[in-house]
Amino acid sequence: MNYVILNGQILERNEAKVDIEDRGYQFGDGIYEVIRVYNGTFFTADEHLTRLFESAEKIGMTLPCTFEELKNLLASLVQRNKVNDGIIYLQFSRGVAARQHHYPDKNVEPAFTAYTKEMPRPKDKLENGVQAKLVEDVRWLRCDIKSLNLLGNIMAKQEAAEAGCFEAILHRGDKVTEGSSSNMFIVKDGTIKTHPATNLILNGITRRVILDICKEQNIPVQEEEFTVEELLSADEIFLASTTSEVMPIVKVTGGEFEAGEPGEITKKLQAVFEKKITQQCG
Ligand code: DCS
Questions:
Q1: Is 58 a catalytic residue?
Q2: C-beta neighbour count of 139 within 10 angstroms
Q3: Ligand 1 test: best mutation among 55, 141, 183, most atoms within 8 Å of CB?
Q4: DSSP assigned state of 13
């Protein structure tokens, strides 16, 4: 049986019904998180839930539960669905109200849904790397909010997929920002560069784990903007996300960057990242 969460209750999936005037459905007015589960245990759950509460605050939404209540309920769902290696997806929309752009009354509670999915680690791609395509970043200027509004991201990912690529590398003019659903990193002469955590990117939890690893391992990092030209002349490129972990990019479509195989620093980060998974999740 597949269970889901609807407004604080665990239900069978076919019993969970959402109103057609849910503001998430009509406006994309809400926020979400994707948390990794390894071996039946959450990885970096506190960091994800902290970001969720921050996103809520940024859009003026008060979540109808405490951090601990939420974490416990999510853990119950993972247990109930017997997730081994997978994810939990959770979202809060601003709730159900007659369609008007401005926020509804304070007494309208956010609508909370969550489900789990079995998802093995992408071992083949982690080992061999993936291809990516450069796509202009035409999203709004609050990419730091993990909003349900993903049209810009989706359109970029589709463009990449149609070119046979795993990810879109977004750039605003000549500056690389991030991936359509990941953060972007380059390595040049032993130094890692990634876009600073501004309003132009989502400050990924995987990104933060990688920055911690770099500190521990004395790998130099610059959280600085870098150009498309720097990307294409980098020694290594990798992306990072909850589902993709530390994923080597071995080719940028068009053939401007073609490493062919994952780089040494990328592989080192992968190895330490894997250790962190084992430490937290067994
Ligand atoms: N940037 C964007 C635009 C993202 O959507 C994501 C994650 C990231 C960066 C990386 O953040 P995390 O390291 O915290 O995952 N996107 C999630 C998603 O929509 N599906 O899986 C991960």
A1: no
A2: 22
A3: 183
A4: G
5-46 pLDDT per residue, tens = 999 999 999 999 999 999 999 999 999 999 999 999 999 999
Q: How far is CA 232 from CA 79, 134, 178, in A?
A: 44, 10, 15
Residue 56 CB–ligand 1 contact under 6 Å: no
Q: Which residue in this structure is represented by tokens 């991030």?
A: 178
Mean pLDDT of 218-237: 98
Query: What's the pTM?
Result: 0.98
Q: Which two tokens stand for residue 100?
A: 């008007």
Indicate which atom in ligand 1 lies nearest the CA of residue 208.
Answer: 13
Q: Domain limits of the chain?
A: 3-118, 123-281
The residue nearest atom 5 of ligand 1, judged by CA position, is 181
Domain 3-118: give its CATH architecture.
2-Layer Sandwich (3.30)
Q: Does domain 123-281 have CATH number 3.20.10.10?
A: yes
Which of 123, 125, 146, 275 is catalytic? The answer is 146
Please, which residues have CB within 8 angstroms of residue 180's CB and are 6 or more apart in sequence?
135, 153, 154, 156, 157, 160, 167, 168, 170
